Amino acid sequence: MTTRPSRDHSDAENSLYSLLGEPAPPQAAAGETSLTATKETVDADTEDVSDDDVIRLRGA
Amino acid sequence: MSSAFGVRNRPLIIGSADDEHVQAVLAAIGDGANPLLVDTERLEDTPFTLTADRFELGDEAIELGRSRAWLRRLSPPRWRMGTVSGSRDAAVRASFVSVIVALGSHPGVDWLTPYPGIIAAENKLRQYAHADRLGIRTPRTIVTSDAASVPRDLGNKLVAKPFGPGHFVADDGEARVVWAQTLDRDDERLRTLAAAPFLLQERVEAREHLRVVTCKGKSWVGVLDAEGLPLDWRRNDDAHHAFASGADEHVQRAAERLARDLGVGYSSQDWIRDGRDAVFIDLNPAGQWLFLPAAVRDAVTAAVAAHLLGS
Question: ipTM more than 0.90?
Fold first, then answer.
């Protein structure tokens, strides 16, 4: 089996996240409870749950 | 005061008492329902015991086989933020989250939407696959690492939006938001698609933005005039408060069918009305509703409360 060499993740600096990301408006900034529609995911700030957890639960 | 809700059937809410949406629902269900409120932060600060069918938190307890529940947020903003992936702190963090996930996916609990359903429904391409099979119009969309692969029929103006989170904390510690933006097909920035997958879509010219909230087979609509607003209306804070209460039989029935097909008991959906008809844009299975007009806001709050009360 061939494996790919470990990737240099510094290319994230040149992703659209870096190029399009803008300072968050105060009401949407992390650390504040928000009524706006900017952060609407169940784990808005985090990578809370490992893929293993989700896969296990989906398969349960 | 005596209550009809005891340890065997009290409502369960995963979220924080500081969260405005939780506060609104708590006010709607009243004191007598005696809800148990928990998230990762409270779990850290309060003695607890979890077995297959019972959860005890401090001096509160709930039998999981009979309760009705709503998952708002796993943890409050910034909870254990900055934890390095794969570290011991990350393992500790994940262990607390696993407790909440065990609750949020418990098969004996009548969840408004169980946790696995929320996570699965957040994926926009999955949403479009469900919409397509229901005959619901969606913007033509592609995710690719190579901008040259974008079909010509998406047009020369492409809407780029994150396929992952729409916000992040930059290296300088400041919060960043990535709004949906229009890019020319030959924009140099599209050469970076291999570094992070983004959604690319045809641009739909909005006359009105709709936020359709569904809850247990019912729906409510907020309507926002698109004139003068940026492509992504969320950029404009005032726009949040410019929605009017509306109704659209066609869109509402479609939104309700889509929520049912995705298996979510609650959804906040974004639709656009262009010159032709309505286009489904995306769905948030844990989205906000309190910025909408009172008629919508109060009805949604009451619907979530009704689920928790079993009424």
Answer: no
